[in-house]
Amino acid sequence: MTAIHRRLVAVYGDSAPNYCTVTRWFNEFKRGRQSLKDDPQSGQPSDAVNPISIVAVKKLIMVNRRVKVSEIITELQISAGSVDNIIHEHVHMSKVSSCWVPRNLNVHDRQQRVASCQEFLHLYTSDKENFCRRLVTGDETWIHHWDPESKLESMQWKHVDSPPPKKFRTQPSAGKVMATNFWDSEGLLLIDYLPSKMTITGQYYAELLLKLRDAIKQKRRGKLSLGVWLLHDNAPVHKSVVAQQAVRDCGFVQQNHPPTVQIWLPVPVTIFCSET
Length: 276
Fold this sequence. Notes:
Order of helices and strands: HHHHHEEHHEEEEEHHEHHE
CATH superfamily of the largest domain: Ribonuclease H-like superfamily/Ribonuclease H
Strand order of the largest sheet: 7-6-3-8-9
Strand content: 15-25%
Low-confidence stretches: 261-276
Mean pLDDT: 83
């Protein structure tokens, strides 16, 4: 064996195998070994990024879009770098937060919204200069305070070319207050907070419309003379006899409002997190 090792060093120099390796291979051939290749070994391949692991990662993500990288690592027993490589370079997905929308509209609701948009487009083309000045929007909204789901908790995997996920429901409220808001293109006109243990009635809303007229008179000089287009939803209190009479008494022109449309008031709202 010593002679064999010397001959290998003479030929290959520093690249020659060491004496222990020569001894091991000498004994292997002495026992009858003929192959020069390593024996196949069980267990994980040296390169974890392979077709089997790619399919496994994709399957885990498709079953649970919110699965975490740490959970994939634990399940498949591969490194974080391999998981990241598979997700971005082979599965072509990225993790993004859900986009909150008011509700999921059906076909009929969408058709109604198209019709309403066409009506407003007609109003705009007939009076482009004063369209934004004449339009006043009103809506009621609950101001909630609760422990919201964080953006990190709502994140889930998606393909690069697929739309972002959506959330249609919020967590149960720990407390809330009803706010009635009216605004136009220049900003907020009137905001009213409903007293505790009260509900909005037709008479209550009619009085708000009278307050709105006074607010417009004070804050938007000349708007009443142009004629106000009032846009509010189809809530029962808005369609009540006393509320409709108040619309006429104020000189407002009520515009058609499609069902299920939700409009957000651009004012800051404080979210309080409970201690539980």
